[in-house]
Records
---
Amino acid sequence: MKTIDVCLSPELIHLYDVSDKTVVVVDILRATSCMVTALAHGVECIIPMASETECERMKSKGYIISGERNGQKIQGFDKGNSPFEYMEEDIRGLKIAFTTTNGTQAIEKSKGAKKILIGSFLNLSAITRYLLMSDDNILIVCAGWKGKLNLEDSLFAGALVDNLRKHIEPDCDAPMIARELYLSAKDDMMKFLSASSHVKRLNRLNIHKDIEFCLTPDLYHVIPILKRDRLVLL
Amino acid sequence: MKTIDVCLSPELIHLYDVSDKTVVVVDILRATSCMVTALAHGVECIIPMASETECERMKSKGYIISGERNGQKIQGFDKGNSPFEYMEEDIRGLKIAFTTTNGTQAIEKSKGAKKILIGSFLNLSAITRYLLMSDDNILIVCAGWKGKLNLEDSLFAGALVDNLRKHIEPDCDAPMIARELYLSAKDDMMKFLSASSHVKRLNRLNIHKDIEFCLTPDLYHVIPILKRDRLVLL
């Protein structure tokens, strides 16, 4: 039977051998939610970049540059980190270079995995179906907040573990911790999350609407996958 | 208002500034449960040591040497990691050098903290009372299992956060995650833990009795504290 494990912070990723695994990277608020939204709306590809400077350089190569640090759009960049910036008609066919505080760093640290997929509540069922059909062992990598755990990514991990539980065995205690958390929260995730430190931080930025959107399950039936250095649809 | 945070793995401790904090180190199965038991039964002091070789050297200096690796007593050592080895009459007045897979490593990594206390379910109320009276910010450091999170240490962290919640504010999401877990588990922790990877591992070693003992709240009203290199009673 294949196994599933959860790495609740990118700072723990050295404890896992990812080489034989399909890794699902998640940063619910809001990097991976934006990536799923953008690709579902016809963006050609997204290059996730850990470095702000390298991302900025992509502007001269015909890329839209998107970026956020500490929850706010980087000055001089074309777009920030709200999913609503990635669903207009004019997004179709664009190539985007994207850097964020946590999400793109988590992707960077997951390199070396057999496959890297991008997960969010927006494409939860699509990811679930894919993982059920695949033969690989699975590792969910939560982006967290600057190395620390966060509620929303842990909740997503728990939802995915719960979806897969009849077919895929948890490899350690972290999947059980995440699943218990999800079972406590699933009936009203918005209310549950309202106490989270990151949500408090984001609420100060007036993005309540973003948060509600990012918690909506199954709006999109797409699976972003990393091919070499860029995310495209599977 | 002072704050409480939870470091769910010693591999994350670099993310926390411990210099102004009281750190509570916990390794429920079984290092910190043994330490609390031993000191409650009259042991003079315990030197926690990360290295097996250094621990062995203490034998010639008049210490009892205790140690466990991967759940089993180290060959040639006087005692292992079962709390029942630390409650006989002949334990009184002994000095012990102690090394374990996770617990003593977590203490080592917490050095630099303002204070280091040893927590377990066995002395949960004593620790709670002390922390309520202290002015310091608090960090609970879970020993986990070789860097990964485990259920039992996370549960203890959640119990302590729950006890303190009316007086001490959680500093981040980890305390909330731990508390939710504890609230799900508290009515039957033994059953809840039976699915944990570490408990499965320990059950193979026939130490069901140890596990039940380590989950017993408030058997002892003692607080072990690290003074220079040794644990003594506060």
---
Amino acid sequence: MRNPAPRETILTLFSQTPDGFVSGERISAELGVSRTAVWKHIRSLRQAGYLIEAIPSRGYQLLQTPDVLMPEAIQSGLECRWVGSRVHCFDETDSTNLQACRLGDEGATDGLVVIADRQSSGKGRMGRRWESPGGVNLYASILLRPPILPFEAPKLTFLSAVAVCRAINICTGLQPTVKWPNDILLNGAKVAGLLNEMSSETDQVHYVVLGIGVNLNMNAEQFPEGLRYPATSLAIVAGQVISRLDFTRTLLQEIDALYQIYLEQGSTPILSAWTELCDLTGKSVQVDCNESQVEGTMIGLAEDGALLVRTAAGKIESIYAGDVRPA
Amino acid sequence: MRNPAPRETILTLFSQTPDGFVSGERISAELGVSRTAVWKHIRSLRQAGYLIEAIPSRGYQLLQTPDVLMPEAIQSGLECRWVGSRVHCFDETDSTNLQACRLGDEGATDGLVVIADRQSSGKGRMGRRWESPGGVNLYASILLRPPILPFEAPKLTFLSAVAVCRAINICTGLQPTVKWPNDILLNGAKVAGLLNEMSSETDQVHYVVLGIGVNLNMNAEQFPEGLRYPATSLAIVAGQVISRLDFTRTLLQEIDALYQIYLEQGSTPILSAWTELCDLTGKSVQVDCNESQVEGTMIGLAEDGALLVRTAAGKIESIYAGDVRPA
């Protein structure tokens, strides 16, 4: 088990008291530090935006939690077995995936999470750019070390997709759909994108990084001109501000739960859940592959994650890379 | 086209003159530098071990080429289309694969070669150690950026294996055999090992690194105690010292030729060539997999690179990871 940081322990204590009060003595005992040290931790939480009052003879009271992404707030009481074992939060980084890969090369353990408030070089699929303004969205990368063969790993994209859809549904009540291979849509517009990367040798995965970008509170003016596909945010569709902290915690817990299912039962339940979230299943689609185009009826996913399309001639095509749209 | 380094140009000029003489004037004109600069390049080649005499009125004469692995010597006249576009030679590095991966992350181009005289943390398959003493062997990593899907990449191990066998045969006349998935044997003892690594996203390979370790001139005393399998070197079997430079150049050319075949015709010819080099095809084998053991007759390779074994019950097992040995 990891050792929680002092600020995380304090936040957990606050969350566990029904009246919101925690005595300095209690915190001091729990952390095994002096009352002066407790006061310094409280001050650092206040500096991070927590509204904490000190009431003589009753102790500290947490009045307001800011919507900041910091490890202690994300980890406090997080119900995860793997995901979030370590959490790194950056104000700015080039790309959370690049950070996670670098940490993976240095031996980072299973479940590491890298989050950035903004990305200077946010990456989309196939070297495309992912718009990453600060203060509004979630840019997260989760490093996993599953005991699988490299050819199994691409299917983990479906795990991220299902987790993002579930987190959106839990936090907003909205029901997103998925678009093969790595997009999440609300009302047909892109609200989240996934970029999974892997480092492997021939018969062993070193690590997989699940890169997840979710447009939470971006407003219409923040989207650049000339996007390949229409884009939106949860706030635009839900008509309300989304708590980045709540969303992040929910998402990490959903990923963790699905990862446990994956490790115990394999990818079949994950692929089924993804197929149910895909509104193009059974519909006419057109798929732009690198050098060709396939038209037909989308049947679903093959066992290996390929998109299955039945052409007019009755042939079933297995597609491993391409852009799909309704025909 | 890359621009050859001055020392490479000089070595190429030496190799092109039938009498071994090249005038300082000629070198000066070819490089577009002063006679003093030519003299400095000649001096640096001498310092690297080249025996070069200066004969008044006739020019420079190359009398002896040392067996050192340096980029200019490897690249001079190398007949490759991709491999060797850049060559980095280290006296010592942690692992040529790690170096090549780091350079790959930084954007190194297709065909980069990393060579080290010795490795402080030479890597074998599955995190095992690869003995890497200095001055005797070849430790090389070749970075490729093939336009393929990640699940195709593991098959490139067979490409390295065939290339190593061909280079051994060309340089010594010996006929090695291959052992699935990544060993090269001479008289049943391991003479070379392969460790291919990959960085990829779901539907795109960023790069593949072909890691190749060949025991060229190691003597019996240099092998550590308690190796998993018997090991040998080309010099031990051939009874003669092997030129590291000749072997390296031959190997890179063989990899390049096979890579061209792979890009044009796919993996089928590579898998066929590998199967012909495998002396266990059609024989009884035992395969230790992670949690199970498979016994039967080795049939060959599946299209996806899996080892195919027909069990006594007549079932054909496809094996993706394991250690195979004669039953």
